[in-house]
């Protein structure tokens, strides 16, 4: 476990090593050296640059276009739910941060503190938000007085800092990251529960409909739920190449825990004093790392069309003695035609060989490549190449817009279906401890009957802990398979209460 600034600069050394041994292509293969492959892809795919402070990364425009596509979808959907934007400070008063004991105990190792300004020590240290419950809820207590003030539904797009961790990984595990965080307050538990479910469904849609990554909707165990919360729901993804689960996004019911601490009370319709029911929910730039891990290949990124900054790249292929001007004109005309149809498209007229351009844009994951050469001009067509499976199709210019739109939709769906097939092939149902250990050794996503006891989960974590980490519960899926009467827990031998997914985490 790294402490403080011990690893400052280690990420930059990683960048230097990657750049030293690689040319345009990748030197590592996804199936052979996943960690090094991932580091190469996010760097050479122009998603990030490394920063001198370990665990902090520069997010490049290619990344921000993906993030903004998700943001645009999410903003439109939460607006329908009456959720509005706000912005709260980066800094947290230390007294407020410590007011909810379970909450601060859960985050204490990750909280970064400001203790000096210039050469002077601060009289009272100030925390940098690891999340914003304790920043926002003192104001909730001011703004909520009667039932007419409810529901209160706020969202903010911001960055947070969580300092203590091991093995920094771009997008997946970083000290500073971007996210949205929503905070809501309701008069009744029923309203709050409905809000948890509505937001979780939006997170599922982000992963499955935009990033083409299959996820499992479910509930976290008591041991793994949000610190200070009543219960936590989640969408869980799985990385077949590593055999590890990854928490995709979470929607938490906070119950009345924070309302008690921060005195968020209101006068209900009967004139009685009551406490609000609260939720918080968030997804972060981790989503982008999950997408890269699931879809990327040995040529680089593979971007789903819905989030790709450029959905199509047009490359001129001028052979010797060919009329380059006519080819370039055809490329420009193609770009203009596709742009008018709302397709995100670029042309590459740089003075590099077509082969170099192909590799460059494959590395960046552009879903479709259009090649235009002398033969294509003669035949009134363009050559279209799909990034995900390298399929080549000759498309008449007259049908270009229709065909490109159809291909983009096909690629989006195909990426999801292939990812789901790979995940499902790694999923194994077990009913005994021996089966569980065997499946864990084979890096499976494990579904097992469980007694739902916290102490049993602690025992499983302890018995499976090794250099690869401990096995944890990922979630108990909302869609529960049938549990035959008398089924025993795989770990304790007690009567099982539910099916639960288990695995090691990224």
Automatic annotation (TrEMBL):
Q: Which PROSITE patterns match?
A: AA_TRNA_LIGASE_II
Instruction: Note the CDD domains from the entry.
Output: ProRS_anticodon_zinc, ProRS_core_arch_euk
Q: Per its record, how is this protein called by name?
A: proline--tRNA ligase
Q: Which residues form the Aminoacyl-transfer RNA synthetases class-II family profile domain?
A: 66-304
| Species of origin | Ziziphus jujuba
For this protein, the record's SUPFAM superfamilies field holds: C-terminal domain of ProRS, Class II aaRS ABD-related, Class II aaRS and biotin synthetases
Q: Which PANTHER family match?
A: BIFUNCTIONAL GLUTAMATE_PROLINE--TRNA LIGASE, PROLYL-TRNA SYNTHETASE
Q: Which UniProt keywords apply?
A: Aminoacyl-tRNA synthetase, ATP-binding, Ligase, Nucleotide-binding, Protein biosynthesis
Reaction(s) catalysed by this chain, per the record, are: tRNA(Pro) + L-proline + ATP = L-prolyl-tRNA(Pro) + AMP + diphosphate
Any single GO BP term = prolyl-tRNA aminoacylation
